[in-house]
TrEMBL record:
UniProt protein name: Uncharacterized protein
Organism encoding this protein: Bizionia algoritergicola
Length: 62
């Protein structure tokens, strides 16, 4: 009986650790998705600006 109780406690600890690890990974994934989204938005803004500069240069030239 003691062995079963000990195994149960060990499994409970493993489950708690696994749950904590899962939550930490989920938080990291959420952070990275937000970071990537913001980075893509910034890249889009920079690209828009460069295209406007290119357009202005071409209009001046021709």
């Amino acid at each position: 009986m003691k062995t079963a109780a000990k195994q149960y406690i060990d499994l409970e600890k493993q489950y708690a650790l696994g749950t904590k690890t899962y939550e930490e990974i989920a938080m990291k994934i959420n952070y990275l998705e937000t970071f990537n989204h913001n980075l893509l938005n910034k890249l889009f803004e920079i690209t828009q600006g460069l295209l406007l500069v290119k357009k202005a240069i071409l209009e001046e030239r021709y």
